[in-house]
Amino acid sequence: MNRKDMSVQDLAELLGQSRQNINTKLKKENFSEQDLRKISNVLEVEFEGFFFLKNGDKI
Predict the structure, then answer these.
(1) Angle between the 8-15 and 19-28 helix axes, to the nearest 10 degrees?
(2) Is-contact 14 7, C-beta < 8 A?
(3) CATH 1.10.260 for the 1-59 domain, yes or no
């Protein structure tokens, strides 16, 4: 958010959530994949969620 010069309040408004809700999720690092995809959309960045196998393969 810093690179986009966006506050937590700005992000919350764009996501249709309260600032308190976003702050709680940030503090607990508790975002669903859907949350992360929505955030990536409003920040205009790409989100990639992967699992990596022990051999390094990405799935």
Answers:
(1) 110
(2) no
(3) yes
User: Distance (Å, rounded) from C-alpha 52 to C-alpha 27?
Assistant: 26
* Residue with tokens 């205009």, as numbered in its chain: 44
Question: In whole numbers, what is the pLDDT of the chain averaged over residues?
Answer: 93
Rounded average pLDDT over 32-54: 93
Residues across the chain: 59
Domain boundaries, the chain: 1-59
Between helices 33-43 and 8-15, what is the axis angle to 10°?
A: 110
The count of other CB atoms within 10 Å of the CB of residue 20 is 10
